[in-house]
Amino acid sequence: MKTYDIVIIGGGSGGLAAAQAASDPNLDVLLLEKDAMLGGILNQCIHNGFGLHRYQTELTGPEYAQRAIEELRDCNVEIKMKTTLYHMEKKQDYLITYINQAEGEITIRAKAIIATTGSYERTRGAIGLPGSRPKGVLNAGVAQRYLNIEGYMVGKNIFILGSGDIGLIMARRMRLEGANVLGVAEIMPHPSGLTRNVVQCLHDFDIPLYLSHTITDIKGTDQLESITISEMDYTFNPIKDSEKTFEVDALLLSVGLIPDITTFNGLSFLKDERTNGAVVDQHFETSLEGLFIAGNALHIHDLVDWVSEESEKAGLAAKAYIHKRQGKKKCLVEVLGNQHINYVLPQTLDINNTLKDVTLSFRVKEKYDRAMLYLKQGEKTIIKKKARFLVPAEMERLSLPENIELQKDQPLELIVEVIPS
Amino acid sequence: MKKEMICIVCPVGCHLEIDDDLKVTGNQCKRGEVYAKEEVTNPTRVLTTTVAIKSDITRRLSVKSEKPIPKEKLFEAMAILNRVWKEAPVDLHEIIVENIADTKVNILSTRRISK
Ligand SMILES: Cc1cc2nc3c(=O)[nH]c(=O)nc-3n(C[C@H](O)[C@H](O)[C@H](O)COP(=O)(O)OP(=O)(O)OC[C@H]3O[C@@H](n4cnc5c(N)ncnc54)[C@H](O)[C@@H]3O)c2cc1C
Ligand code: SF4
Questions:
Q1: Is any atom of ligand 2 closer than 6 Å to the C-beta of B24?
Q2: Topology of A1-121+256-327 in CATH?
Q3: Cα A204 to Cα A227: distance, rounded to the nearest angstrom
Q4: What distance in Å separates the CA atoms of residue B50 and residue B84, rounded to the nearest whole number?
Q5: B18 ligand 2 Cβ < 6 A
Q6: CATH classification code of A123-255
Q7: For residue A221, how far is the Cα from the chain centroid?
Q8: N or C: which end of chain B has fewer CB within 10 A?
Q9: Measured from the CA of B35, which atom of ligand 2 is nearest?
Q10: Nearest residue of A to residue B79 by CA position?
């Protein structure tokens, strides 16, 4: 059985950055990608708006992917394309089984794993949509792939449920390709995507946005025929006589992404129910020694730049793990968020390992125009700063001071204190 | 007549109003005024879309306008691009259509497709 030092699973922006950082002339590093091309979801995100932080210029998704692929070119990394991981278990090392056409089914051994398998879209079942189940109801990301890679339109008269960025981007994209986009419905009273996308994808094309609305009926026996939306009251119950019906042949769902770690179900590591991903430390290592997770497989990112940065750190940490840290004991300090925070990452900090260059990522629960941010351990305040325009759609970041010293057995607390306006 | 819009230059997202004499209100800073005037007098957008390609790995080649083009030319540009048919290999930033819809802006490929 062939043994590798580090195996990276998934060659999207996360896997590409992780592989580059983990590569080393003296290590055997392998990258597995199930698709025929590297770059992951970026290949279908043909719009602009990527790379402002990492490359200080505005790129389309494919251009960003191309840069990341080129950066990996001269690295000592073996790449297997059209190769799917489908089973993994942990003995002394990790045993990985993958399949591809050339080799069939192969099991290899790895000392460390970096999982950068991305995310999957929440489906109709997950949000309990009512009505019949005809053809024509599909996820926005799937429709995006059909249109931008396979080259066909999923319908002529379209409605979109969910005002996340994917839904907004697809509204514009379908409109430009000649479809009628009859509207976008959002159950919350505010759009969940970026304002820029609301303006440039909806307002630009006079596509109506129905806030506080959701779908209350779907009709069609074989093919989708119509959908009905209703306005919701503040308890999320439909308001009587507020129904509007639209004749459509496609309904796109943009109702959220979930970290895809289903192929790692055979491994037992701690999970975080708020992110639907794993619990990690500052080096993106899970509670299973040698298993690192980064990118959308860890938590959902709105900016690819941070996927790359995070995955790079995971790659460096995996390399350091192979070189010197295997078997060393950890001393974990928990990181907690207060009631205004949806989640904070990493959820733990290993104070036996370096705390240099650590950034906390978090999302708030609601929109706060003004707030104070505190990072505390017990009575000690480590960071205190003002923050403006915190919104759930945008991940916030907070860098820890270089010389931070932490006590063991006491959690670190991230506090958002809302300043009323 | 007054026109309303949301400023997208920064995350504050001011609600702007601009009248026929190009007087802007609602902005919290100068950039909002510039944005509103630009949006009323000469709104432009970068167009990103795809064209057909014969290749082993994909059926669409992603493209963009090298610079923003006038908003009212977007659909005309789309109609032209819908008739384009490329064959691999295509290099990154290869010119796919020159001077699209008389805008003096070229359409470039946004990826390399080798086969
Ligand atoms: C529609 C959409 C629009 C976006 N718009 C923007 C934007 O405008 N600006 C911005 O900065 N960010 C944007 N993002 C966010 C950003 O692009 C993503 O968060 C980022 O690209 C995710 O990278 P990733 O590597 O974690 O996942 P992915 O790109 O999903 O990569 C995961 C890879 O793993 C592979 N894989 C999965 N399972 C297996 C397996 N079992 N075996 C082998 N391989 C496997 C997949 O094939 C895929 O290539 C957008 C995201 C989406 C979905
Ligand atoms: S007007 Fe100024 S402060 Fe207001 S959104 Fe525009 S750039 Fe931001």
A1: no
A2: FAD/NAD(P)-binding domain (3.50.50)
A3: 24
A4: 10
A5: no
A6: 3.50.50.60
A7: 34
A8: N
A9: 6
A10: A177
Whether residue A97 has its Cβ less than 6 Å from ligand 1: no
Phi and psi, residue B6, nearest 5°: -105, 130
What mean pLDDT, rounded, does chain A reach? 93
Chain A residues at the B interface, defined by Cβ less than 8 Å, are 36-37, 43, 46-48, 60-63, 65-66, 147-151, 173, 176-178, 195-196, 198-200, 203-204, 388-389, 391, 394
**How much is the pLDDT for A93?**
93
Q: Does residue A161 carry a pLDDT above 80? A: yes
Pick the CATH number of A329-421 from 2.60.40, 3.40.1350, 3.40.710, 1.10.150: 2.60.40
Banded pLDDT at B91 (limits 50, 70, 90):
very high
CB pairs under 8 A between A and B: 76
- Mean pLDDT of the A294-301 span: 96
Residues B60, A62: C-beta atoms closer than 8 Å: no
Q: Are the C-beta atoms of A253 and A139 separated by less than 8 Å?
A: yes
| CB of B13 less than 8 A from some CB of A | yes
- pLDDT value of residue B73: 96
Nearest to B15 by CA among B25, B30, B23, B1: B25
Burial of B18 per CB tally in 10 Å (0-12, 13-18, 19+): buried
pLDDT in tens, A185-210: 999 988 888 888 999 999 999 999 99
Going from the Cα of A64 to the center of ligand 1, the distance in angstroms, rounded, reads: 12
Q: Which ligand is nearest to the CA of B11?
A: 2
pLDDT digits (tens, 9 = 90+) for A243-262: 999 999 999 999 989 999 98
Fold of the B48-109 domain: CPE0013-like fold (3.10.530)
Contact B107, B74 (CB under 8 A): no
